[in-house]
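Blackboard transcription, Thursday session:
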Amino acid sequence: MGFQMLVPFSPWNWLLLLVAFKCSEASSDLNESTNSTAQHEPNVRFAAASSEADEKISVFALDYDYVQIPYEVTLWILLASLAKIGFHLYHRLPGLMPESCLLIIVGALVGAIIFGTDHKSPPVMDTSIYFLYLLPPIVLEGGYFMPTRPFFENIGSILWWAGLGALINAFGIGLSLYLICQIKAFGLSDVNLLQNLLFGSLISAVDPVAVLAVFEEARVNEPLYMMIFGEALLNDGISVVLYNILIAFTKMHKFEDIEPVDILAGCARFIIVGVGGVFFGVIFGFISAFITRFTQNISAIEPLIVFMFSYLSYLAAETLYLSGILAITACAVTMKKYVEENVSQTSYTTIKYFMKMLSSVSETLIFIFMGVSTIGKNHEWNWAFICFTLAFCQIWRAISVFALFYVSNQFRTFPFSIKDQCIIFYSGVRGAGSFSLAFLLPLSLFPRKKMFVTATLVVIYFTVFIQGITIGPLVRYLDVKKTNKKESINEELHIRLMDHLKAGIEDVCGQWSHYQVRDKFKKFDHKYLRKILIRKNQPKSSIVSLYKKLEMKQAIEMVETGILSSTAFSIPHQAQRIHGTKRLSPEDVESMRDILTHNMYQVRQRTLSYNKYNLKPQTSEKQAKEILIRRQNTLRESMRKGHSLPWGKPAGTKNIRYLSFPYGHPQPARRDTRVDDFTDNDSSDSEFPSIMFKARSRTGTLQERRLTQEIIPMKSLPRGGKPHHFGYQRNTSQEEHVGVGRREALRPKPLFHAVDEEFESGEESEEKISESESRWSAEYRPSRQHHRSHSPLLQRK
Amino acid sequence: MHPVGFSAEPAPPKIGLSTSLPTQGIFRAAHPPPLAFSSDQIEQLHRRFKQLSGDQPTIRKENFNNVPDLELNPIRSKIVRAFFDNRNLRKGSSGLADEINFEDFLTIMSYFRPIDTTMDEEQVQLCRKEKLRFLFHMYDSDSDGRITLEEYRNVVEELLSGNPHIEKESARSIADGAMMEAASVCVGQMEPDQVYEGITFDDFLKIWQGIDIETKMHVRFLNMETIALCH
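(Written on the board underneath:)
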């Protein structure tokens, strides 16, 4: 299916690829004289080629080998990106199958082409490349985008499950496969215990990112989501540590026997490696947070610092034989919070996108390489080994899930139900990690490496394709407890209130539990860490800028609705009804939630949305700008027509004026500057035209109607300070009484009127204005009613 | 992890403890809270109560000033108020009590018992409702059975009071937005002349429908012997 979608994109790519292969063949024909091992060493080849060129200068020369590796890698990535575009063009496809399926298919296609053309794939994967370049971005991304708060709320269960689960799986699978290997009939007797254990450790590295996407869509409950997320995050680290220790054992075993002391040392090593890695990561995280404190003048290097320090933590830990994966994870988790507050908004965006990009490139490469190595001759198909591997993977996962959760449920207030456990069992999708580890097995120590690779591939294909595609329906079928996380501002408020309430009650009880531990940490954090790590007197942090953005959006939306409604003017009342009950748009809720999230006393991120391949779409500022320009044009046009008074205009344009600025005074110059301010209000907020946001609230009866007015922008208009203004309002409200009778008196629905503050305060004394305004309000009341519900904050087209 | 709480603080005076410590049975009979405590928990809470009250039989508002951890809580006043709210104490439909005794203290605490998984659906619903009522009372400060816009704004402002940078206007617009949303959730299609006066308790329940309060509103008390004692 996915393939069909990418057909329209592919032909060019195929062509390119084929051209590339043809070229390489041609060039290798030309350079047959040079030795064949030069394939792996482009530099040698380059030297050879250039020395040849010295002899005879040709007008047109071809040197494909020189660029082969980066060229083909680029093509792969490009191909994968195009495939992803195609994949997402048909919107239902991503819901049906995980993206890793697509990548594997693309890889298999590339592999088929390479195999068909008898080409040798470039040596992208080897141990050092994988561990030094491909793995860190993937892990860093996982750590950086970890939802901190729910993670630490469930940390006990997560560590218990992710840590012990990986160990049980590794040893269980390894030992039971060893037993199978003892059966002579299968022809596996040369596979010894250590090799089996090693295989067990690499096959137990699950990669449930695809499952997370399903969970997010199905909105499963938070603890379940965090279990899988925690597993995805920590599992790699644990498997790699185990893998490395076992490799060390295997090497040692070649020369001498392993003694019990060595095994004890191995266990101790396992703990040291893990804890040491985390320790390193935390230290580096604090250092990088501290450094970003001083980067306000050179914000361009902020992303660089973040990336380099995380990478440095990885390398430093690896130098000391500690777990680099855990180090980089811990580093990302530690620094994230402080860095986010220190760096500028743009740097923050850059960091996020760059991180996503790097990790997706790494993963794409691994998956494609997996596809490439699927099709080829280096396989050894042993029915027994493969079938038993597949079976043991499922069996041991089931055992570990049900055993470990049985224990951890005893300590949880809200245990995981059987359904949850089934889902966790079923989400054991293997991925890039297992394949890389299997592929990197040293052939000298593992004579049957081919069989291991084949078995790993089968397990990966089975889990990714069958489990990955069916877990969505399974989650829906089992009807797992949902979070019902709607986009709701009320909910956000209630939950936050609840958090404080809980902490408060615990304080009163004088008890310690994790709310209080968290609270204590917050206090410590506020008292010391933040003071040290976070820049002081920063320009009101990101909150204000965020708020400004929100404001800007409101203003623009107002204009937008104005323009749009002018076309639908003939049916204003219907429009009102439709709009009146419209719910908040997700974007608005998101921005409100952002404000809440960043400004509560306890800063907490609640968003549980994690997508390995993508970030949430940002508000389209370009579109906003375009609307502004359009609006500007409309204004100019109307000015050109030379109407001095607005009420001579056709109905359609009245609306625009009403919603933009109070019209009625030909002040072209002024209006123009205003519009300009509007467009680049990021730089100057003093001139920003304020939008008045009148919320009529009726607290008691109709008679007690209170008029309150809010200014959405930062600048506030003193309440009641302007009698003229007030009169204007009362005027309208009286008219409402007379004219329409009882209208929605109340309401929490804020009314939005665009009133230019400058205009108000500056020209207030002129009677003419008040006159014209009242006339205006009298005449255009219907339109106001129409627009009353057009609150930009509260609705979007 | 749990019992660390007292280690840092001076041991509560033992005088009169054994005699004044009420037993579990009496409590359940005399005043059935929605969720009862085990005797260990009651003992712990009683010790804490004594500590807070300074060995007096009742706690007054001022006693809560002695809780240093509470100081930074942005909704501190709301929390303290909730302890004295007659509605929460089931002593009346409005007003505040001047002082509360240990029994009342337990009543308040009982709102924060975790819901037992062995309870049947009906009991869960009952407990859920009790918890939500407590929460509702925190919002509805004038006891008129509605959360008005003013009250809502108050709460949001208080919640955001921790950050000096945030301005009142934004807090208000958030409250307005939330109110608007609540209206659309609870009333649905609003007629032009319809008035939404505030969130009633039924509306409040509706808003909370999606959130599993069972997992949210609970405090881990010292020991987790989960005996189903929901009446």
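Lecturer's comment: Chain A touches chain B through 85 residues (CB under 8 Å).
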